[in-house]
Write a structure and sequence with these properties.
Elements: H1 3-16, H2 68-78, H3 85-98, H4 102-107, H5 110-116, H6 136-145
Helix pairs in contact: 1-6
Length: 154
């Protein structure tokens, strides 16, 4: 996906750590808890893998680490056929829209978009989940590296 939306999604995958997992499909088939040294991957995109990680108390999976319970709602809402990369992207864009941040992404107000989305992704600054968070400056750098453009004064 080109443009600011694609760059924002790439930045999210970098932030969640999924796109850096060796052997993954650009993060789309990554399970919660995966690390470069322990690449936990799932094999089928037919459905959310629904694998529970007791150490992290999570069913998060995919490029944007979506919980199984949210997948079911979005699958119905968006009439998605599966958990494929296209479906995962559609869900992430819908989540960004629900936080009223999609317009900010489109015009390059990335810092504001990141802050608006911090209640969705634990790796974003200001997230309330008590997990590792990335610095806003690093996120902006990854967004730019992915080809996103920043609005003046943002």
């Amino acid at each position: 996906m080109p443009g600011n939306r694609g760059a924002f999604l790439d930045m999210l995958a970098w932030s969640e750590g999924t796109s850096a997992i060796p052997g993954s499909d650009n993060g789309y088939n990554v399970l919660c808890g995966a690390t470069p040294d322990d690449p936990l991957l799932f094999e089928s995109y037919a459905d959310h893998p629904r694998i529970y990680n007791p150490d992290l108390d999570s069913t998060a999976a995919g490029r944007y680490q979506l919980l199984a319970r949210y997948y079911d709602s979005y699958k119905e809402l968006l009439s998605l056929p599966d958990f494929s990369p296209a479906s995962q992207d559609a869900i992430a864009l819908r989540q960004i829209m629900e936080r009223r941040a999609l317009g900010d992404v489109d015009v390059g107000n990335i810092k504001l978009a990141i802050l608006k989305c911090s209640t969705i992704w634990a790796s974003l600054p200001g997230a309330p989940y008590g997990q590792r968070q990335n610095q806003l400056s690093d996120l902006c750098a990854e967004y730019a590296k992915a080809g996103g453009s920043m609005a003046p004064n943002s």
